[in-house]
Write a structure and sequence with these properties.
This protein has six helices and seven strands; from the N terminus they run αβααββββββααα. By secondary structure, it is of the alpha+beta class.
Length: 202
């Protein structure tokens, strides 16, 4: 008996179809947000804070030890010496300095101060028991920092120097070339000394 082919068997798998074009949407992906400018911080702040705490604790321990040896240690005197040690900590507490693009801020016990370093009016160096660098901007904001901090943290200095140059080009900086030059010389001397020390020439 003649066998007839099943027409369903003769039909092969459906032909492969290429995927159609992806429909174009008018909405475009939002651009990536621009990264925030890098902020330079005082790398020695934590060390200075530990030193301040250590000095306060040592003073408190010394006062309590003297009172205990003299037999005059009482509750009110413990509170007195503790308050004295806390006052010393407040005096020694280091301000935390940060410099970003166009600004410099110091955060201490009494709050945060901030100046626009790209709109500086003056940079003055005050001599005394501790040398201070005073920055003032066009809005009247004023900040004092220790110039040794800039010498120990070149990243802070380079950001401040760049913005001070921008202020000079803008015409707002009318006083400060001498003070900035002194700091620049100290930074260069410290960098040269570090190179000599690493190379064994010091």
């Amino acid at each position: 008996m003649e066998r007839r082919d099943d027409p369903r068997e003769a039909v092969g798998p459906p032909p492969h179809r290429a995927p159609g074009p992806v429909p174009h949407t008018s909405a475009e992906p939002s651009p990536e947000p621009a990264p925030s400018p890098e902020v330079a911080h005082d790398l020695q702040w934590a060390r200075d804070l530990r030193s301040a705490v250590r000095c306060s604790v040592l003073l408190l321990a010394l006062l309590l030890l003297i009172d205990h040896a003299a037999g005059t240690l009482t509750g009110p005197r413990v509170l007195l010496w503790t308050g004295l040690a806390a006052l010393l900590l407040l005096v020694l507490y280091p301000a935390r300095v940060a410099v970003g693009e166009g600004w410099l801020s110091t955060r201490g016990v009494l709050g945060t101060r901030r100046v626009r370093t790209d709109h500086l009016v003056s940079v003055r160096c005050l001599d005394g028991v501790g040398q201070r660098l005073v920055l003032r901007d066009t809005s009247g904001a004023r900040v004092e920092i220790d110039p040794r901090l800039l010498v120990a943290n070149p990243a802070l200095w380079h950001r401040l120097d760049d913005d001070a140059r921008a202020s000079a080009l803008r015409g707002s900086l009318v006083c400060g070339a001498t003070a900035l030059r002194r700091v620049s010389e100290r930074v260069d001397e410290e960098a040269a000394r570090a190179v000599f020390k690493v190379s064994g020439l010091d």
